[in-house]
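W.,

You were right to be curious about this one. When I first looked at the sequence I had no strong expectations either way, so I just let the prediction run and decided to look at it fresh. Below is the sequence, 211 residues in total, followed by the output.
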Amino acid sequence: MEKAAKRRKRDLPIRTYTAHLMTMDLFLRKVAPGAEFQIPYPNMWPKAFITKYRIPETVQTFLFSPFNVIHHPNYIFDNDKDKLRYVIPMAPAGITDNRFVNLRAHTTQVARISPQQFVRELTAVERKVDSIWAKPKKILVFYDYTLAPKAVQTRAKLFQKLARNTVDWPLISVKETVKRNRKDPNVWPHYSGKTYLGCLSQIERLEQNAT
């Protein structure tokens, strides 16, 4: 989102921290202001992926999407004594992307979290966010799943409904504004720069209304 904004206005300051592929389990057990922790087997992840989390000391706006719960399976790494749940990206058809085959060999896949566990963990996330960052503005972000496989769409309907019923946060629904190639199953979780800029504008309006 902010990459799209930087292309439009190069002097725009970077103000966003992205906890890419972080599960709620990881957030609840490891995150603290200023904390740093590394993902298992950091040298095996593709270069574009975050392998070390550096948690901000302060957060003014907290965005949460149930995307990881809806789309990605959960794994425990064989060298992780804490048995934390991680996610490893999957191809939409359900086959692990070739870049992650060797990495996945060092994991055990575990069951996706149940709806009941999702509600418990999201409730705990809300409490923790308010306690460690002095009650920042909290926003739900829902992806557009219309191009996703049917199984993903079914999970999306369930977990998005649960998220709305669990936390009373403002909602941003991401809707693609540019026509996409429906024959390519890999495009559905990704959006155009125009759509990202629209999301950024929505967030900025919500932040301004909070002040």
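Here's what jumped out at me. The chain has a mean pLDDT of 84. And, maybe more interesting for your project: The chain is about 35% helix and 15% strand.

Coffee later to discuss?

I.
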